[in-house]
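Thread title: Can someone regenerate the structure for this chain?

I was given the following input by a collaborator and told the matching structure tokens would be attached. They weren't. Posting the sequence so someone can regenerate them.
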Amino acid sequence: MISLIYDRGDNLKVTILGTGAYAVALSLMFDKNDCDITFWTKIEKEAQMLERERENSIVLPGVEIPKNSVITMSMKEAVTNADLIVIAVPAKYVDSVSSELKTCIDPSQHICIASKGIEQETCSFVSDILMRYIKSANIAVISGPSFASDIASFAPIGLTLATTNAKTEKLIKAALQNDSLKLRTTDDLIGVELCGALKNVIAIASGIIAGMGYPESTKAMFVTESLHDVKELIKSLGGKENTILSFAGFGDLLLTATSLKSRNFKLGYLIGSKEKKEVIDDYIANNTIEGLYTLKSIYKLLRNREVDMPIIDLIYDIIYEERDINDLIKYLIYK
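Best answer:
Regenerated them for you:
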């Protein structure tokens, strides 16, 4: 096990903002490294469920949260004396969470962003939303191929850790990296965040292709074409092209765009297989589909920056303008 002594004499204190599947899964990695863990949620029913059942039985049933972890609805109580604050809420809530966090965070504390997406109103990345309220150099982003259930089963997992701060990198590695979870580092926050957001959108389209009955070969063709598009977009927005080859890039896209365990892929599969509208609407209502939120954001961002990415236009038109799903296949052949 990796030692958690980080220039101090006691275990690291980690606060996780959010109690969803990914938050719970990450808590097991921190617990494996003997961190002291506090969960924060603003939703009373979630707090009560975690206190009562010691698991989130809705999104990750059967996975117990760390035995000695604390659950609180007080942001001040949650972050006071924390060495590391992990943001693990859906992208659309990052603004309100960051606003509340601003009132009680200490400038010396470190922040790790595990949320993925782009804000619809402003087309801001999650790190930009956070820095709207908190001006800190102690910020990092983690992203990569990692279903919450796989992390929770202690399967070998690889994530990209993006930060420009050496102390933040050292702290997060001490708290999170162990014999189940590997971290590869980069200073390309833009590229990592873009990959983490776009893979959910690409996964919806890949699911449509699978739902239409096309084989693995066609899905592989689509994923490969998408990699080239994402690479060019990273470059256009000021990131590093080789980030596409990281855990956050190719790794996460490969996982999310090929598995029915992905909620985004599953939604696409339902659309591609022409499932009844009521079934699709029910699935959306009962699952967090980050790709739907991000699709509107990236569509707007591309127009604001005058960047051309036809695959995003096509996916947007299929989801929101009822465009023929067969145009996806035409795109692949005639692009």
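Confidence is low (pLDDT under 50) at residues 1-9.
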